[in-house]
Design goal:
The protein has helices at 6-22, 28-41, 46-56, 62-73. With 96 residues, it is mainly alpha-helical.
């Protein structure tokens, strides 16, 4: 993923959401939007995101989600975005 700012990721996510919700599911535009969304999402560590969401007790805001994508893409510690939520010593132990 090319280096993007949080604002750029938020704009991209809004564009993809709009395209996904307003185009026919069997269209090329819909499929392309889904692929682009997947490309943004694949930089995320789902286990880290799960820990964060569980600790927050709510869904991520658009700002938080975009910041997670940017931090993950830049190989930064995503837990730094959420003071008070500590990185578990072993994320793999949470998969039980």
């Amino acid at each position: 993923m090319a280096k993007m700012t949080v604002e750029e990721v938020k704009a991209k996510l809004a564009d993809l959401k709009e395209r996904i919700t307003t185009t026919k599911q069997d269209s090329e535009e819909f499929n392309q939007a889904v692929v682009e969304l997947h490309d943004l999402d694949k930089v995320l560590n789902i286990d880290e995101m799960d820990v964060i969401v569980k600790n927050l007790g709510r869904q991520l805001t658009d700002d938080e989600y975009a910041a997670l994508i940017v931090a993950s893409a830049n190989q930064e510690d995503v837990f730094d975005l959420f003071p008070g939520i500590e990185r578990p010593a072993d994320l793999n132990s949470l998969k039980k």
